[in-house]
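My current task is to audit a protein record that another person submitted. Please read both lines and tell me whether the tokens look consistent with the sequence. Do not assume that whoever made the record got everything right. I have pasted the whole thing underneath without changing anything:

===
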Amino acid sequence: MTINYSKQAIKFLSKQDRPTKLRIVNAINALPAGDVKKLQGQSGYRLRVGSYRIIFDKTGNVLYIEKIDNRGQVYK
């Protein structure tokens, strides 16, 4: 499975400390395992990692990470 990251996702990960970054990347690599739900009112899915949310979409064998942010900010 190929994983592509958006510019925003890469920027968010680069600002995090090492343990947080590793936790998020490990959760992404473990997909489809984890707390995953389909988004309502828009396309895509969300993965919950503690207080962080990862918005992603899957097309065939390609996983596109659209957005990573804190719980309250990611859906805006």
Q: What stands out?
A: The first helix runs from residue 7 to 15.
